[in-house]
Amino acid sequence: MASSFDVRAVQTTVYDGQKPGTSGLRKRVKVFQQEHYTENFIQATLDAVSPDGGAQGTTLVVGGDGRYFLQEAVQKIVKIAAGNKVTKLIIGQHGILSTPAASNLIRKLKADGGILLTASHNPGGPDNDFGIKYNVSNGGPAPESVTNRIYERTKALTTYRLADLPDVDLSAVGTHQFANFTVEIVDSIDEYVALMHRLFDISLIRNFLRARKDSFSVLFDGMHGVTGPYAHRIFVKELGLPETSVMNAQTLPDFGGGHPDPNLTYAHELVERVRRDSVSFGAASDGDGDRNMIISHDWFVTPSDSVAIIAAHAHRLPYFNQGQVKGLARSMPTSAALDRVADRQGLEMYEVPTGWKFFGNLMDAGQLSICGEESFGTGSDHIREKDGLWAILAWLNVIAHISEERGTTVGIRDLMDQHYQSYGRNYFTRYDYEEVDSASANKVMDVLQDHIQSQKLVGQALGCDTAKFTVAQLDNFDYTDPIDGSVSRNQGVRIVFDDSSRIVFRLSGTGSQGATIRLYIDKYEGDASACFLDAQVALKPLIQVALEVSQLTALTGREKPTVIT
Ligand code: VG1
Ligand code: CO
């Protein structure tokens, strides 16, 4: 029954610091629980949906990664959306949508945008993080022009518009009609799985896994994030793998107390099981399902290599066969392994700042098909977010395809071997110094900025007696979007050496506490026989240079990073 409802303007006061970061507004749950805090940000977001008319008459997708405070946030969005004359909300069942699934729904259902409730890989629970992110009609994260508009609104709000509606039952698929406002609860998984069927040769992968079940094992770790149910459906139901091939698959509001970030530190349970049980193909996803890690008992695939492998074998994937790869791209700190593939294949290569939003324009313009970030993000133009399960299925599809061609089981290590033989290797590592106090982190960046100012290091040979690196370029990365001409400045300090090695420093834009310094090191090795060292060994001299130049240890008191990737 369609029922009418009242709308009232609730008086509010401005909260400072509601500035969206690399990927939306991320804060402690306790911050979002303050009176009017979440409401203010939702109102500001709806005001920014269009430059002048707010969100009136729009259709928006809403969903999140299952973390603590999700349900409350969704109910607030329903009431404020109705209060702002939104026409329709499409919400994932139980409020749940993985980030890639939400991006797909926005595109598929031609919505005007979406509100994604996630702090991605940050821990969840009452004492941890929550996040709100706005995506635009192409399915991708809002560009800076829109996030700046949101931020400006948060600084000027005096009221938000709240409809007097009951809480909506999010547990059942179906439609709720309130006068001219519609809330549709949709299955969270169906559309996403249908998309994967259009992109990959699912029966080829299934047949391969069945035929090689004694020589090729799979283990997926959902890390108690949003992807567990998606992965269970795909791996167990569609690909016929045993139930035991999916671990931590239940989505929990506190991610089981873990840190749902798929890297060697936080996904250690997977890493240990893969090594102990000699698993051929291990994979994990983060809290909201857009990141992925790929590992075997005898190899860890860096995300920079992962996207290069997918691009090098793209012709083996149904979505890209017949040479439909339009261009490749990576974030600036990501290693240049992908550049070598672009070079070989004569494809256009783009280097963008950190954050998936920078890939969207190139994809919309038909100039970019496959891209990646060193932060375990890999994806393509099938949607406008990075996509963890997509990357994992891409790898499985490539492996199944090559194994079938060669009549033998080809593993992760085999693929890497061949790749390094053919292209050489970009050794890569990232050091994260988490929860450094902001003043010290800024001092480190100031030291680097001073080096840029003086340019005195250029031409100098840094390093130890056995490994010298001559500085060729020293700058802070600025990006001009080739499509709309928008400029993003100061996206990371780069020290580039004359052998193309790079040291990059930047501050994280996704943390919720203190500052996180990220240090990235990239070094090319063209001699295939030298491509199988431990990355930490191969990169040690450059890491030393980075620490000396930045005075990081002295300024932060940190002897060691929190996480090494
Ligand atoms: C980090 C990563 C970046 C990624 C972003 C969002 O940002 O470095 O590559 O796009 O997280 O990923 P920062 O500013 O903290 O370095 V997710 O999975 O949080 O949506
Ligand atoms: Co994420």
UniProtKB/TrEMBL annotation:
It comes from Tieghemiomyces parasiticus. It is an enzyme of class 5 (isomerase). Pfam families: PGM1_C_vert_fung, PGM_PMM_I, PGM_PMM_II, PGM_PMM_III. GO terms for molecular function: magnesium ion binding; phosphoglucomutase activity. PANTHER family: PHOSPHOGLUCOMUTASE, PHOSPHOHEXOMUTASE FAMILY MEMBER. Its cofactor is Mg(2+). InterPro entries: A-D-PHexomutase_a/b/a-I (IPR005844), A-D-PHexomutase_a/b/a-I/II/III (IPR016055), A-D-PHexomutase_a/b/a-II (IPR005845), A-D-PHexomutase_a/b/a-III (IPR005846), A-D-PHexomutase_C_sf (IPR036900), A-D-PHexomutase_CS (IPR016066), Alpha-D-phosphohexomutase_SF (IPR005841), PGM (IPR045244). Residues 18-160, 210-297, 305-421 form the Alpha-D-phosphohexomutase alpha/beta/alpha domain. Keywords: Carbohydrate metabolism, Glucose metabolism, Isomerase, Magnesium, Metal-binding, Phosphoprotein. One of its GO terms (biological process) is glucose metabolic process. This is phosphoglucomutase (alpha-D-glucose-1,6-bisphosphate-dependent). GO terms for cellular component: cytosol. PROSITE patterns: PGM_PMM. The keyword Isomerase applies. Its EC number is 5.4.2.2. The keyword NADP does not apply. It catalyses: O-phospho-L-seryl-[protein] + alpha-D-glucose 1-phosphate = alpha-D-glucose 1,6-bisphosphate + L-seryl-[protein]; alpha-D-glucose 1,6-bisphosphate + L-seryl-[protein] = O-phospho-L-seryl-[protein] + alpha-D-glucose 6-phosphate; alpha-D-glucose 1-phosphate = alpha-D-glucose 6-phosphate. It comes from the Eukaryota. Belongs to the phosphohexose mutase family.
